[in-house]
Amino acid sequence: MKRALPLLALTALLAACDNGGGVPTPGPGPAPTYTVSGEVIAPGGVALTTLGLASSANWDAPHVPGQVLVTTGSTLGAQSLTVLSGVRTQRLDDTLTLAFTPGGETDPAFAARLTAAGLQTQPNYLYHALAVPNDPGYPDDQPYLLRINAQNAWDAFDAKGQAPTGPIVAVLDTGVDATHPDLTGRLLPGRDFCGSNDLSNCTIDNTPEDTGGHGTASVGLIGAATNNARGMAGLTWTGRNILPVKVFGGADASTVTVRQGIEYAVQQGAKVINMSLGGPGASDPDPLMHQAIQAAVAANVTVVASAGNTPGDGVYYPAAYPEVIAVGAAARNGTLSCFSARPTATRPRQLDLIAPGGNSTVGTCQGESDDLIVSLTTGGGYAYWAGTSESAPLVSGVAALMRGINPNLTATQTRQLLKSTATTVSGGALLNAGAAVRAAATATPAPDPVPNTYDVTVQAFSGSTVVNTFKGQLKSGDKRLPYTLNLPAGTYTLRATITGAGKTYRGEANVQLNANKQVNIQTQ
């Protein structure tokens, strides 16, 4: 039998719940919740196909003195802001800053101090043009075009009722003489990036004027107007599709200018990039350059570079990067030109192709003369040249013809067909324009690759406790992934992880949450 609770006890129980007015006191309500959102940014702010490029900086390699390149996110932690306080800086884009070494401090020491504060650093490396002009003269013929079977390539266009032309070709070099009569109707408006490395003898503008002639020569081999009863023949005959991009300030180009040139070329829709420039370095001296190249290739751009003009130093960078078509120079008899770069025991990177480059007055070959290469020079004239700087534009010109005769051809197919159709000679795989263009004409479109995916996790830590977690995926080629977390008011450490292709990249940011906030997280 149930017993009734005594009235006195019941009254006491109700009194304990009374706030004095006869109404029970409410318990504490839920803490306010806020939203923190933003983006998880891939290392360097570049596409995921370029992850994993970090390497030890080589401060002994040629670089712009007094400068350190700093890779950052769009937000900086307190420690990073402190170490850059009072330092002269130049923001290049949302992830890259040029920091000027303070007086009394060496570049390596300054870079080490920045690295200790959590920033990624490297030198602003220098690259130089890879050709030396010889005696100027007007050409009676161009035997190097016969050696690469160019006529057969042009005949393939003729059979289809088309003029030999191609897509946009970006020439990253010393600029161009836009007034040269043999370039009439061939040039797109260009860009001059050479001032971005703070060289006093170079002005930033949109007129890539060539004061040295090297860039004009490279442009001429690819795109001198042809069948115009004037001067010389370029590999691509016609069309306003040559994009001159000046990356040299004085005698050298730098990491900053070449990287900007590559990115600009991709933005302008170039399908071929020619770089007749380079320099020796350590095993992987310039990750920022490498990132830009990989991003270009991921954007379906064929990238071609000169291998170098010293036979004992191995293949120069950027040609030494695996994504680049590395081009050595061939002499008239099919051997490697005496000056041409080639693999060494310590630098085993192989040449992908060789193409005519002369055999005279370059490097260790003073006094020899063998089939110099004729191209344009500033002032409306013509000159003889020798070097791998001449070899690379011949390959770039043929790559443009291949992608002109078959616009569906991919960068990967272009590279494969250039190599598979080359003629085997004693010096290596000699460019065969006719075979390459005809193979390209009949190639079927490549299937779209299945994109790699990368798992992304963002965790909000309060002390050592995980309060909330976001999970998502990035695809190969993506640079950023938006995230959102709902959290109570408080102070948190946001830790992001990107995992894929056997690698893991991490980043974190601190946030004091008392309102909705946006915080980007840079990984490295």
Sum up the structure in keywords.
524 residues; alpha/beta; 28 strands; 22% helix
What does this structure look like?
It is a single chain. The protein is of the alpha/beta class and 524 residues long. It contains eleven helices and 28 strands. The strands form seven sheets. The protein has a seven-stranded parallel sheet, sandwiched between helices. Strands 1, 24, 27 and 28 form a four-stranded mixed sheet that branches. Residues 1-22, 50-54 and 132-139 have low confidence and may be disordered.
Strand order of the largest sheet: 9-10-8-13-15-16-17
Shape descriptor reads elongated
Q: Describe the biggest sheet?
A: 7 strands, parallel
| Low-pLDDT residue intervals, each spanning 5 or more residues | 1-22, 50-54, 132-139
Concise summary:
It contains eleven helices and 28 strands.
Q: What does the secondary structure layout of this molecule look like, with pairings?
A:
Elements: H1 7-16, E1 33-41, E2 67-71, H2 78-84, E3 89-91, E4 96-100, H3 107-116, E5 120-122, E6 126-129, E7 132-136, H4 143-147, H5 150-159, E8 169-173, E9 191-192, H6 214-223, E10 242-246, E11 248-249, E12 252-254, H7 255-267, E13 272-275, E14 277-278, H8 287-298, E15 302-306, E16 325-330, E17 353-356, E18 373-377, E19 381-386, H9 388-405, H10 411-420, E20 423-425, E21 428-430, H11 433-442, E22 453-462, E23 465-475, E24 480-488, E25 490-500, E26 503-513, E27 517-518, E28 521-522
Parallel strand pairs: 1-27, 1-28, 8-10, 8-13, 9-10, 13-15, 15-16, 16-17
Antiparallel strand pairs: 1-24, 2-4, 2-5, 3-4, 6-12, 6-14, 7-19, 11-12, 18-19, 20-21, 22-23, 22-25, 25-26
Helix pairs in contact: 5-11, 6-9, 7-8, 9-11, 10-11
